[in-house]
Design brief:
Strand content: 25-35%
Order of helices and strands: HHEEHHEEHEEEHHEHHEEHEEEHEE
Helix content: 40-55%
Largest sheet: 7 strands, antiparallel
Shape: elongated
CATH superfamily of the largest domain: Reverse transcriptase/Diguanylate cyclase domain
Radius of gyration: 31 Å
Distance between the termini: 87 Å
Number of domains: 2
Length: 327
């Protein structure tokens, strides 16, 4: 037997000796586990791993290295036995993608990695890897997440619902009221209304009207920040919450939306639908008014747009309404 082979056998014997301290505990584990040396050779495996891989434990112990039967990755980055052996301390790795070689199904896994070192010189011997298959739980969580999202989004536009608007805004106001004044930030509202939407429904049909609502929703998502909350309030009316935005900056954002809507070429069944939008803007006076009073001011500003030719943005500063120029 070569010196290299003798060295391998010595390392394997040492790691098995070290692992013997945990053997009784390992036998009652319900999750799959594997003990590998620094060459990836499987030294110990339980029945749960055999079931996961579709092989017997005897077959597993004959595999040259674990990469031949199991492929791990995190965010597309491979996590083979070499990478596992690089860990110097116990670690849990979430959101691991695992594929049994020869099978097409990708499993969602959580790995627990426990490194083993030679007690005499601290050289690495290998690692014990605990493998928990959470595929079923992940699918269930995704289903619940999908249902939760559906419950707060408008099915036609995929914008948030009126109920979510009120819930989110109440939370923002409550939070600001609880903070010292120097730590608060402005919260602005934009109330938007599609101009002459009834004429679109009457002239092009209700399906065309639905299509227009979807287009407007898409442009809103593209125009406002990711931190802004865009909602369909009802019919052709929309509301946007802009945390940390003064009413002047909210007015600029509203005008950006208005211009984008105006410039959008909307074709439906080979017919072009001209479209404009008007917006009313107001910032919440934290501690001095309710958000419903702020909405009433934004609504007054929107009403002023309609009486001045539409396709406008107006701001209500609490005392007066300021109509911004179209260009």
């Amino acid at each position: 037997m070569s010196q290299a082979a003798v060295k391998v056998e010595t390392v394997q014997a040492t790691i098995l000796s070290e692992f013997a301290r945990f053997d009784a505990f390992a036998k009652v584990l319900l999750d799959a586990y594997v003990l590998i040396d620094t060459n990836g050779r499987i030294l110990k495996a339980n029945q749960a791993l055999a079931q996961l891989t579709g092989q017997t434990t005897r077959q597993l112990l004959k595999v040259e290295n674990i990469n031949q039967i199991l492929s791990f990755s995190v965010d597309g980055i491979p996590l083979g036995f070499k990478e596992l052996c690089e860990y110097d301390s116990t670690i849990r790795i979430d959101e691991v993608s695992g594929i049994v070689i020869g099978q097409e199904t990708t499993r969602n896994l959580i790995l627990g990695v426990y490194p083993f070192s030679d007690p005499s010189n601290q050289s690495k011997l290998g690692v014990f890897v605990l493998i928990r298959d959470v595929t079923a739980e992940t699918l269930l969580q995704d289903q619940y997440k999908s249902k939760a999202i559906q419950s707060i989004t408008d099915p036609l536009t995929t914008l948030f619902t009126r109920a979510y608007f009120e819930e989110f805004l109440t939370g923002q106001v409550t939070r600001m009221e609880a903070l010292p004044e120097k730590e608060t930030y402005p919260v602005s509202l934009v109330m938007c209304d599609i101009d002459f939407f009834k004429k679109i429904n009457d002239g092009y049909g209700h399906q065309a009207g639905d299509y227009v609502l979807k287009v407007v929703a898409r442009i809103m998502k593209q125009t406002f920040r990711k931190t802004d909350v865009c909602c369909r309030y009802g019919g052709e009316e929309f509301l946007v919450i802009l945390p940390a935005a003064s009413f002047e900056n909210a007015g600029l954002a509203a005008n950006k939306l208005r211009q984008a809507i105006q410039n959008e070429v909307i074709m439906y069944e080979d017919r072009q639908i001209p479209l404009t939008m008007s917006c009313g803007v107001a910032a919440i006076h934290i501690g001095k008014e309710t958000y419903m009073e702020t909405m009433a001011r934004a609504d007054l500003a929107l009403y002023e747009c309609k009486h001045n030719g539409r396709n406008l943005v107006s701001l209500h500063d609490g005392e007066k309404i300021i109509i911004t120029p179209r260009d």
